[in-house]
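Standup notes
- DV: blocked on the single-chain target, sequence here:
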Amino acid sequence: MEIKRLANAALFKNTEIKSSPRILVELIIIAVVFILLSFFLGKPRMTDFMIFGIAVLSYDLIYGYMGHLTIGHMLYFGTGTYSATLFMKLVSPNPLLGIIAGILAGALLAAIVGSLVVRTKGATFALVNMAFNYVGFFLVAYAWADVTGGEDGMASFTGTVGPVNLQQHPLWFYFVLSCLLLSFFLLKKITASPFGVMVKAIKHNETRIKFLGYNVHYYKLVTFVIASALAAFAGTLTTINYGYIAPDYLSPLRNEELIFANLIGGAGNIYGALLGGTLYMVMKDYLSIYVARWELVLGILLVVISLKFRTGLVGFLKKHIQLRSGSGR
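- DV (later): unblocked, structure below
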């Protein structure tokens, strides 16, 4: 019945979408939280957290909403970093144009690769994506070393936007915060739209949606491209933020960071992606100072969350609040 309800909801234009005032309130709350945290953790560090948050949001669209675990998402993040860097080096140093170039490159690559990988599912989907990620890593680190700098990486030269230097704090902090809010807003609209409802229905039962006559391949491919373009967006911000890029940004091993962050906050929940991304970065930056093998602590925490909080921290809190409100009636 849940599948039928979701599929039928996607037919109508009046599918329930979050009202503009509510989204505005949510955006204000997110902005206030990150601004307040910047006073304690510093703007440069919070900038790192927000860029990682965009990457986690992009991953959640595939893993949490479409229901496909991928181990190749860093391919598009890295595509964004290298495309933006090369564009600013060879074409124009304007960072805004570099960001656009990186997003388009990531989306184009995702459209090509995605037309193949979205035909698979389960472990095959994860492994085929990982294979493409390794191919991209090899090309950047070795085959195209003359252009990319190989294992040594390359510097990223970012110009100004007219008289404005975006890289200077606090302007850069607020620019990245705006990018995070924009990403959140777009995903909120997409996941609540008829298109997003259909993607959720496909996650529940892809076979039944095919039987109902919907073009499942189209919905999965578009979702894959949107998520990859958003990952590339985070990659472009990374190259401007650090002024240096390396093959590590394409490393398939770094996909585990996105997976862990989603599981901590709660997959299939935009708020969970933001919370999980922030908590992961806090542990990575601060826990590693006091604990040499901080990854072990993270692994234990992940096991506890998987067993005790199956829907992540946000899912657990949401369920707990609903139970409390229900018992209070």
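- Follow-up: The chain is about 75% helix and 0% strand.
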